[in-house]
Structures are given as structure tokens and as C-alpha cells.
Amino acid sequence: MSSTVTEARPLEAQNGGQAGGSGAQSTQDRSIGTIISEARNLSAEQVEQILVYQRKNSVRFGEAAIALGFASTDDVLFALAQQFHYPYAAEEQRKTSPELIALNQPFSLQAEAFRAIRSQVMMRVFGDAEAGRRALAVISSDHGDGKTYFAANLAVTLAQLGGRTLLVDADLRSPRQHEVFNVRNDAGLSGILAGRSEAQVIQQIAGVPSLFILPVGVTPPNPVELVERPAFGLLIRELVAKFDHVIVDTPAASSGSDASVIAARCGSALVVARKNQSSVHALQDLVATLTGTPARLAGVIVNEF
Fold first, then answer.
1. Residue 151 and residue 138 in contact, taking contact as beta carbons nearer than 8 Å
2. Mean pLDDT, the chain, as a whole number?
3. Which residues pair with 269 in a beta bridge?
4. Is the pTM of this model over 0.85?
């Protein structure tokens, strides 16, 4: 999937269009040219060639650098992300976490779709002062609907707003968030709910200062019992008090009652269905199980990816 990159001309014109700048400047104060030249370790001669091409062809520094082969489109995207303090995964991280579209390809159509959903979630869940602070459970009727993929990317887009965002993997049956984010899974939610004292269960995601994850840890033999205990509800209340946004991944509803129990503890739920695959009857049953519970249905998302 291709994407178009547009650089802001006023920012490009900082420092008189030169690529050089003071090392004491913050990333936001530096021009895109400065960031690109430092990232690619360009020589003064190469920078001068880019500036000559830029003036001659009336293009931006990044476009000139790409045309001359001194930078790639990815370098320009990285520079834009650095300048606007927008988390953007390094090339190595993109290889180890390919499902994180919102972080790996923040300017793609898929990432834009997640940002549109984020706007709705902010209004319906996290922006509703009258409803109080709540977590958002991401639920689906069956395996393969893309629930884990959706929860991970939604969490990334929320963190990109700057608010402290926590992604809780509460799929105690088939946890995958630690694989998606390539983090440790030796300790986590299951240990907390079992009453074990475990250190550093919440991990910060590298390259995204506002994003944290609480993995499952050891997969337990009694997942439903663990989330039905009062400890889970108390934990969710503690987490929503400490984080601006809390997203909770859940098991597929076809695996048991875990999803509806978790949604009730969270206070709100978002249903994910897969286009041309999810059963309407199964979705109706899932929504019906939320009726009469404290969980408010934020909406239903049809996953086309």
C-alpha cells in the first residue's frame, strides 16, 4: 500500500533552509534537512549539492535528497516523525513487529483508518466525563477476527496523542500481544490475579514513550475464574486511575464467557468483526450478552485488513 508524504514548507525554511544547526536545539526546533543530514551522516559537500538542487528545482530538502540518492522516502518519514514528536518505528523494529501498522506505516491508509476510529473512541469512551473513567475491552465472536491486531494498533494511535496508554492482554487462553510487540512474557496479568508478587509486569514499548503493555505472563489453567475474581475489577480500577487510556484485549467469545466478564469489569466494549467471515448470528449473541451488564457498547468495527 503506497502513501504520500507532504513536508511542511514553513518548517523546511527554518535556519534559512540550511541543513546545519546548533546541537543544543531540540528536535522540534531543527529543520527536516538537519535531521536527515544527521541521520544519513551527510558531508558538507553532499548537503550543498542538495541545497543547489533544492533551489534550482523549487522542491523541499527531503525531495531533493531523495532525487540525488542521498536519502530515502523512509528517511524523510523518520525526519517528519522526529520533528513532530510522532512515534515511528525504526526499520529493525518494523521487521520484528509487522502487525503494528500504526507505528510502522503511520502515513498509510490503514493507519489513517485507525486514527479515524481513535477519534470516535475518544468521544464515546475516554471523552465522556459523565460516565467516569473506564477501560475499553476489545471483543470479538470468534478467532481470526483481528481483535488482537485491532487492539494493538488502537493502543498505538492513542499513545501517539501523547496520553499515557496501557494495553492489557487479558486473553488468558491464547495471548499474543507479547508477540505483536516483541516483549517479555515471563510475568504479567495471570500472576497478579493469582496473588503472586511480580516486579516490572508493566513494560514500556521502545520508541513510543507513552505506550505501555501488561502481558499475560504464564497461561493459567483457570482463565474464567481469574477474571471473575474481585481482584480483576480492582486492578482495572487502579489502572484507569493511573493511565489516560486503557485498552484490554480479550479471548474470542467462542472460547467461553471471559470476554463478556472482562467487558463488564472494564465498563465499555468495542466489538470487532471480520468482513465476509463473521457470523451475524454470533455477533448478535455477543452483543446480547452485554445487555444488562455495566459495559457500554462503544460500537462495532468491521475489519477489512
1. yes
2. 83
3. 137, 297
4. no
